[in-house]
Amino acid sequence: MSGLINTAYAQTGGTSSGSGMGQILILVVFVVIFYFMLIRPQQKRMKEQQAMLGKLAAGDEVATSGGVLGRIVEVGDTYLLLEVADGVKLRVQKSAVSQVLPKGTYKNG
């Protein structure tokens, strides 16, 4: 009966160093793609936003992230005074400014 049953030998399941290097290479490629598609563009947008906020001056016409349009009357370190209508002024955080509008875009009334 022992002649009918073949003896099974366990094979060593060692991994080759080539497949380990391949997995590391794939991981590195994903990290590089992640950096160039997500992290780097976000850093660039943040840098542009900070530059725009640093250049704000009285008389500039701006739009806030809340959708309020106005003309800057006064610029402080962290706050702006916006005139949104004749005699109506709002104090907003500088960081709330989303874009500077071209001159003449915002008109009172």
Throw out a few tags for this protein.
five-stranded antiparallel β-sheet; 2 domains; 1 helix; alpha+beta; 5 strands
Order of strands in the sheet with most strands: 4-3-2-1-5
- The count of domains is 2
Structural class: alpha+beta
| Named CATH architecture of the largest domain | Roll
Q: Which residues form runs of ≥5 with pLDDT under 50? A: none
What's the oligomerization state? single chain
Structural shape: rod-shaped
Gyration radius, rounded: 31 Å
Q: Report the portion of residues in β strands.
A: 25-35%
Q: Overview of this structure, please?
A:
With 109 residues, this protein is of the alpha+beta class. It has two domains: 15-55; 56-101, SH3 type barrels. 35% of the residues lie in helices and 27% in strands. The N and C termini lie far apart (104 Å).
Indicate the topology.
Layout: H1 17-54, E1 61-64, E2 69-75, E3 79-85, E4 88-93, E5 97-101
Antiparallel strand pairs: 1-2, 1-5, 2-3, 3-4
